[in-house]
Specification:
The structure is a homotetramer.
Chain A: H1 23-29, H2 35-52, E1 56-61, H3 66-79, E2 85-88, H4 90-100, E3 106-107, H5 114-119, E4 122-125, E5 128-131, H6 132-148, H7 156-171, H8 176-183, E6 187-188, H9 196-207, H10 216-229, E7 233-238, H11 241-257, E8 264-271, H12 285-290, E9 294-304, H13 307-318, H14 323-328, E10 334-335, E11 341-343, E12 346-348, H15 357-361
Parallel strand pairs in A: 1-2, 1-7, 2-6, 7-8, 8-9
Antiparallel strand pairs in A: 3-5, 4-5, 10-11, 11-12
Chain lengths: 362, 362, 362, 362
């Protein structure tokens, strides 16, 4: 009998339907099918590996995930420390705040009459609605809170920590901001000025001069210093956008000051954008390797799927990860109160990149 | 307190992660989130309604679903009669036959060196490989079988029934073709000449003159007559392509001869194509309504997702549908042996459209 | 000074805006930009090379190009013999016939009220409308014509030649079918049963028994024999679908019987589908190489763009190709009247693959 | 004769190929075809209307347009004042600066070996390469420049004006930053901390404490005040991302303080993202209407196309717009030097929203 080609070694195993399959069983049965189904199963396996390894897991989120019903999935990932640091668009944090404050988004139609919606002051996000008046009231709430803070620059990380604290103190409700506050998980929002949180901050200035100042360049320093302090990292990206690049940039910027940094050890992205138009959101993880954003032997997978399908399945499967295993994770410990945060007891400046790491490590 | 806008009635319910969630629980929790997650949950609900109603369910499949590990999902839908009539590309039937005959597709890489694959005669379907020699041997097997048949035209439906029978007789293995044969579910393949099954048929002519003849126009007559005989229909489409249009065409063509036909009562599609380039694969179900392909009050949903993610989840959830309920389904009963098939005991011609239906219905 | 990396040799040349740039100047200035703009410029260059080489150029067209205003672009490519053989979906030929017969498609809206359209019997193709009654009258016209033909099987190629002839005789109008008839360019329609032309053919049976029979498997034999007779080929694909695969299949099937056939020398596709869901429409030309559909050193380019933008630009640029150069082209000469067509004076059977080519070539 | 449906009034006019067609003739012939071709022709018509009307034209650019060879197209639109205010990602400005400083991006391959690229320190953007060392040298150049500035917060607008000035003074070369500097066109970069310009700024801190501070919330105030000062606006968006939302946000935020603001009068977007995943980049202009981002009777068009194909064609056609007509445009006159910019002689604060407009207008 003829020898099989070296390329023909692992047979596809057709998915077998059965009643009662749980999320992790579903994904296990998808490991040897093809296309994006296989990729999602691989993403599950890689995330499990991250959790078993000693890495700081960054989660980037873009797209209307909070308005779209996934905020408690992200909150769950934070609370169970399946992620260590969140980088988000402002909109996702804002829509999270909206619901944490007891408001809602609403089931709507993608084929709405937008003139009719506008006349009732209803804002549409594809098939989902929200009240413009409630949004305006949120902006005001944020502005009032921001105006109470000492008039000085804040990194988005510091401001969002304070916002999460205030939100928890006033509502006691679960959400992304409150979960991150309680779990001491830092949140960065590099494009905060392109969001309603930014709008709230800008309105704080109207209330009290000198308030509402975000030191967005400080975020770069701080995020890179997190990587310098703990060079082994992983990147999980939902939807591309500024969070995807910001996470990679932290690694690249850190490497500039610290040769121990050699790119993410693990990279996983769930995106709907495609590479062939050249935009960063859809760029491949292979491309990221050319920039040194990913380590040479990094495990990586790109899943082309809407997060509203992929993430509920993936996070539900991850809920099967043993709690004792999670407890054993050597995860980074952050202290987020105050102007200068710390990681594992070491200060993380937002004013200067750490250059003395090797000495301090001695 | 101010009255809520009529547009703000049903709150989004954020997905709650929990260990042990089964496929149908996952989809139930996705009913009130947004975007494609909600659409997939709606697809599940609509399919359940189809099963509870008295409709002939057409399933169209395009894209490399069989090579990609979903052939036993489709076989399961056929065997449990969650679909009544299959319309498929030739490739999906061919790749099914390949595995039913004991060959495999293989886990490969989307970043392969295609010149290296070509030199080892390995064919690539995105991230999945197959042996060209085994494919050639399949073609030959099909050609030999086709050459044994009486030299006359066959509708694709009749030929595929005979092929399924032969496959079952020689292998006794599960698959799409064998499941359809055993469950008396007709299969149409409108673009059979654009596939390796067609190639096998063309090679039959080399063996024996006059064989390998498919009466593809007869398929139009036959499929329309199925609808005329039983005008209440539903359409489930995976991936667009010729099956999508063929199923709609059966309805439109039937309506031409029988005013009882008024378009599908239910329509569900899982596609990755988009509407805005004008192609049929990505066309919306709203557009289908303008053509009369869908009934006025039809329940319909379009899910933008890769079937390799959406279908395992959806079919696993459908496995929860009660067997007693399925048993009560008033599904069409087909007799597929011979040149002229029948539905519920009534002949279904492939030579003439039925025009006397009202009389015969009396 | 440090040596430049071997990867950094050809600088991007930013596109320079100027008034009065013609289509070919536009594309020339896009040669050294990036992404799909560069790819379109490369497609232009490759098409020019095809025309200068001695190859049979196949053109595949899928998607609603005819309804969408591109039928006279395709007719122009045929009339100027920038393509030698057309493979099309039925819809594109049908919508071409519709306009050649003096009817129209109409500028509409993608945001139409489809129920209102349905009630006025207006059919929508994304942002384009047509009259259902006129369509029904077309079907009838096709059926009447088909019913006048001798009651025997026809390859789609033979039938479409006769249809083009009849259309030209009765209208004298320009279009795809009439241009192909007049230029002796064969047209194949592998999925003819999935189109309104197929519906017209099926209705011919109602008028006269035994008419409306298409030998779709004969199309496979005929198209492969065209390649066997003249093994140097090029493939231009607009929109994927069955034409894309059928053109490749002709090459693969031909190679089975004739070792001189080694895949297309040139391949160019303008598609909107993507590779990562595994479907054939979006599959890459690299993947095609693994199947032997493309020659080892073939020039190839894939352009991700809507043909309604890319094709007017590309075909207008190609209008600059010198007529004397076109006149010198050693293009294949087809005789299409009758059951058996010929190429360069050699018969092209639809009943048997040519196996004696080397002898006959002596 | 039967009356035509009201929906069937304007026939599709098939595109006619001819040698010598210029960009504006191409687009004129695409006005009555379908799909994205028609949309691009409509975009051309709408942009012409904007230029004839009295509106402030915002241009948003995301995606790797500068690296991809379109920076001089954008520079041309700025220099000829077909746009009045630019909102950009940092990457586009950075890659512009790179080339203005005499470096290059390079023609590369999308199928590169990224490990090999990484080992030669070549960074890949899809099919385009650049030297990592040159990038690092840019960062340093930006850092040095930023460190020379007075240590105080700058809006991104003020900093980018100074950067453009410095770039012009040191190079005298054409580009986006230098064209904007010379034409007094403000540039906002809301996500500056997510870019290499941000990285350069962060490195300035290492050189001199207190430098490299961007007041990103000040950008919100400033951009909204521009709209308050001159409420008639138009939005042109290339590629979605933060610029798209930031332009809309300026309008929404302005409306909060000034009831004369009622959304953009014109909106035109060229995007590759799609609406159905809920993200802002792909969101439809209809959806924008529900938020009040667009005026009730605004002219609007969305083109689904890669900007590297659409923009060269569109900008070349716009080069035909009569210079005398452009000269007559009542365009906004900006003064950008200094901490507080002005529009038409009126101060535009970045510290407080203008609330006294009606009075000042008296």
């Amino acid at each position: 009998m003829k020898k099989k080609s070296r390329f023909l070694q692992t047979p596809i195993e057709p998915f077998l339907v059965e009643p009662g399959l749980t999320a992790d069983e579903l994904l296990s049965r998808m490991e040897r099918i093809s296309f994006q189904g296989r990729n999602l199963a691989t993403a599950y396996r890689i995330w499990q590996k991250m959790l078993a390894d000693d890495v700081t897991i960054f989660l980037g989120m873009a797209g209307a995930l909070s308005a779209g019903g996934l905020r408690l999935v992200v909150a769950n990932l934070i609370a169970t420390r399946k992620v260590d640091c969140l980088v988000s668009t402002g909109a996702n944090l804002y829509h999270d705040l909206h619901e944490t404050r007891g408001r809602h988004h609403y089931v709507g139609s993608a084929h709405a009459d937008d003139a009719a919606l506008a006349s009732e002051r209803v804002d549409r996000v594809y098939d989902t609605y929200a009240s413009e008046e409630e949004f305006i009231e949120n902006d005001e709430w944020i502005a009032e809170f921001a105006a109470t803070l000492e008039a000085r620059p804040y990194t988005s990380r510091e401001f969002l920590y304070l916002l999460g604290q205030h939100l928890w103190d006033t509502t006691g409700e679960d959400g992304i901001l409150t979960a991150a506050y309680r779990a001491n998980v830092p949140i960065f929002c590099p494009a905060i000025s392109d969001s309603s949180i930014g709008m709230g901050l800008s309105q704080a200035r109207q209330k009290r001069t000198g308030t509402g100042v975000i030191d967005t360049i400080g975020d770069i320093v701080e995020s890179a210093n997190i990587v310098i302090r703990r060079p082994r990292t992983a990147s999980v990206v939902l939807g591309g956008g500024t969070p995807k690049n910001f996470i990679n940039q932290a690694s690249v910027q850190a490497e500039f000051y610290c040769s121990d940094v050699t790119g993410h050890r693990y990279a996983l992205q769930i995106v709907t954008d495609v590479p062939h138009f050249g935009g960063a959101s859809g760029s491949s993880l292979e491309e990221a390797q050319s920039w040194g954003k990913l380590g040479k032997d990094s495990a990586r997978i790109s899943v082309q799927a809407d997060a509203t399908i992929a993430l509920p399945l993936l996070a539900s499967a991850l809920a099967h990860v043993d709690e004792r295993q999670l407890a054993k994770r050597r995860k980074p410990e952050f202290m987020l109160a105050g102007r200068t945060m710390s990681i594992d007891g070491q200060a993380v400046s937002n004013e200067r990149f750490v250059e003395e790491v090797n000495e301090s490590a001695v």
